[in-house]
Fold this protein.
Amino acid sequence: MVSTAEIPQRISRLDELSRNLWWSWNEDARQVFRSLNYPLWRLNGHNPVKQLNELSPYELQDAANDPNFLNLYDSVMARFDHDMNSKDTWLARNYPGLMDDGPVAYFSMEYAIHNSLPMYAGGLGVLAGDICKEASDLGIPMAAVGFMYPQGYFHQHVAADGWQQEIYLQLNFHESPIRRILMPNGSAALASVTMADSTVAIAAWEVQVGRTRLYLLDTNLE
């Protein structure tokens, strides 16, 4: 297992790329991770965060010395930087000044961005995820808000007698493209809500979906 600090300097931005789901709808970006170790990519469900955690330092060093990989890596990172920072967006060209008052706030019960973050159940999540991606591509500043579900869709198994069995897997936060948002003092709680005689503390996780920031509310706190 390799830590972020062990990624060779020449390809050190692999960790940054893995934690922005922009790669999930850009074919060349997916190819960067596939080419590191394709069997491991398949085994880990196309999850680059998990893959980078499990690659050996030797594999990463080999990639850093491979001219073909470096050409692909450099071209992808150049496009990534352009898509994240360019001022020449569809919105800027067609509706300059439209968003001067601030970003759009978008709310949904679930978001289907990629199966490496399986916290959705169906069509509503797919629509919400596509809106986040499209907002990023068009340059529309948007903050999306939803809920952090530690278990998303279930894996179906059909028993010998024909009955469906649902298998729910717990999300591993350390192997997912998410980041907990902390207060300046290091605590996780961001807000609280009074419900009857109880106070519910609320924390949040951030997911980078290209330019779009997705905030997932979480009440699973001490």
